[in-house]
Amino acid sequence: MGQIKACLFDLDGVIVDTAKYHYIAWRELAAELGFEFTEEDNERLKGVSRMTSLNILLEIGGVTLSDEDKLKLAEKKNENYRTFILKMQPDEILDGAEAFLKELKAKGIRIALGSASKNAMTILDRLQLTHLFEAIIDGTKVSEAKPDPEVFLKGAEALNVKPDECVVFEDAEAGVEAALAGNMKCIGIGSPDVLGKANMVIDGLHQMSFEKLMELN
User: Does the predicted TM-score (pTM) go above 0.85?
Assistant: First the structure.
C-alpha cells in the first residue's frame, strides 16, 4: 500500500447525521398515503437509493402506483427533506468531525467528500464546512452506487492521488465494501459487527487523530 496522502469522507453518519430528516420526510409521505412508517421500517432504507427506498415504503404500505406517480412522490419526499436541511446549523456537525478535518488539513493530508447524496453541497454549505474539502464527489457526479467504488475512485482522481494512498471513512457496509473494492484502506464508523471488513472501526471522528490515521501506514 502507498503512503497515506488523502482522506475521503462519506457525509451522512460520518460528518453529520441527516438520517433523522430522511426518516421524518418518508414518515410524512407514508402518513399522506394512509399508513404508518416506523423507525424499524426505516432501517431497511439505509444506504439505498431514493427510488428503491420509495418502492420499499410502498411495499410496506401495500400501495401500488404508476411509475409517473412514483416519480412525483420521490420528488415530494426530496422537497420535504430539503426544507429540513436548509435549516441545518453548524452545531449539527457530529462530534470531533470539524476538528479532525482541520487537523488533517494542517498536516497536509488532502480531503475529499464521497457521498451518494445529491444534496451534499447544500449540507456542507449549511454546516460551513465546504472550504475544508478540496474535492466534492456527490450523487450528481456518479452513476454507480456503493458498493461500486466509483465515488471514491473519482475522489482520488480529483485529488490527483493513487487509490492505495487513500483512507475512506464510512458508516455503511456497502461503503466499506466500495472502499476496499477501490484498493483503499477504510475506517468504519459504527458497529464492528456490521463494519468488520474495515481496517479499523471507531465510534466517531472524535476518536480520530492524525497519529491514529498514520497507524494504517
Answer: yes
